[in-house]
Write a structure and sequence with these properties.
The chain is of the alpha/beta class. The chain has nine helices and twelve strands.
Length: 263
């Protein structure tokens, strides 16, 4: 048994794409979305892993589950967040495949934007940690600005990574980023966008929204109205899920199966 643990999880498409691979490979396994409380999450995680399964962690528990891991991959230690878990030799392992997933989306988005890019990252949760860990390693990035409604969380996160290109801002208005990355959960229910792109000093040349749904997210809809190239979280969902599968079973899933199931 495998599961994505979080609250909310009813909207998750992870069961569809992972079960498609299990069917395609003839694996006797199943994957579900399980809503858990903060008090339940760690216990359920360890039970799934130690009984031969594993899974993923989504909002708001990617940071919360760290004490329940026996072994942490480098990406978990660096980001302080875990989105993938499994067991090996009686020990529960955790990794952060969001890093790989985001880098795959980033490389596709910025291929034609050139170098010296400035990036505005929205949010300071688990997803933002993966983004801030990944971006300094991208050679085309010159500057990363972080905004979060809670200034203290953003300040702590900037201090954690300690990169000279990363800084916190009090207000996103008036910024002129080349790329906007939404790493908050705002827009998850389709209600509102995390910011109004028209409030920036200059429109960005690209938007990456890590939120996804059956319809384009509010931020992606506004980007389309303004003729700004945009990608939502579905591509990252597939890329991080493929990486998760590789952690669980030691090899990548057949190419295209997850993307096809998502469509």
């Amino acid at each position: 048994m495998y599961a994505v643990l979080g609250d909310p999880v009813a909207q998750s498409l992870s069961p569809a794409i992972h079960n498609a691979v299990f069917r395609a490979t003839g694996r006797d396994a199943s994957y579900i979305a399980r809503r858990v409380t903060a008090g339940e999450c760690g216990t359920v995680l360890r039970s799934l892993a130690l009984n031969g399964g594993g899974g993923n962690v989504t909002v708001p528990y990617k940071e919360h589950v760290l004490p329940f891991l026996d072994r942490r991959a480098h990406a978990v230690e660096a980001t302080g967040a875990c989105n993938t878990f499994w067991a090996r030799d009686g020990e529960v392992w955790g990794d952060n495949t969001d890093v790989e997933g985001f880098l795959g989306v980033w490389e596709g988005m910025v291929a034609e934007l050139g170098e010296g890019l400035s990036v505005l990252v929205l949010g300071a949760g688990g997803a933002a940690r993966a983004v801030l860990f990944a971006l300094p390693g991208a050679p085309e990035v010159a500057r990363v600005r972080l905004w979060n409604r809670s200034g203290d969380r953003a300040r702590n996160l900037v201090g954690r990574f300690g990169d000279s290109r990363l800084s916190r801002i009090e207000d996103w208005r008036g910024e002129s980023p080349d790329v906007v990355v939404n790493a908050t959960s705002v827009g998850l229910n389709g209600g509102a966008a995390p910011i109004d792109l028209r409030g920036l000093a200059a429109l960005p040349r690209g938007v990456i929204d890590l939120v996804y749904g059956k319809e384009p997210t509010p931020l992606c809809r506004q980007a389309a109205e303004l003729d700004i190239p945009a990608r939502d979280g579905r591509e990252m969902l597939v890329l991080q899920a493929e990486a998760s599968h590789a952690r669980w079973f030691g090899r990548a899933p057949p190419r295209g199966v997850m993307a096809g199931a998502l469509e």
